[in-house]
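Appendix C: a fully annotated inverse folding record. The material below is reproduced so that readers can follow the format used throughout the book. The structure is listed first as tokens, followed by the designed sequence.
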């Protein structure tokens, strides 16, 4: 669970990054969970975009992604959300 100050720092860091995972009409399947998990392991802080054709809301997608990958939802805004998970080995981001 992130503190408010940690969340603010991560939100600021996420401003400059582009979405690395996009959710479309296929929704939240195993491929989505695997893609988010791999992206979090590589980057720790990722942005995910939800297309209009997606069968879920952005909040549902963010909560599902966080629960299935053991990450924290940093921010949900518009059709995008930001996730953070500290890397087990050699973390890049210290909050």
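Designed amino acids, in order:
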């Amino acid at each position: 669970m992130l503190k408010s100050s940690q969340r603010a720092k991560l939100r600021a860091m996420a401003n400059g990054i582009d979405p690395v995972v996009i959710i479309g009409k296929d929704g939240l399947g195993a491929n989505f969970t695997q893609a988010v998990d791999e992206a979090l392991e590589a980057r720790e802080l990722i942005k995910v975009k939800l297309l209009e054709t997606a069968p879920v809301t952005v909040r549902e997608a963010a909560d599902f992604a966080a629960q299935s990958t053991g990450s924290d939802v940093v921010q949900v805004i518009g059709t995008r959300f930001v996730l953070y998970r500290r890397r087990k080995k050699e973390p890049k981001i210290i909050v």
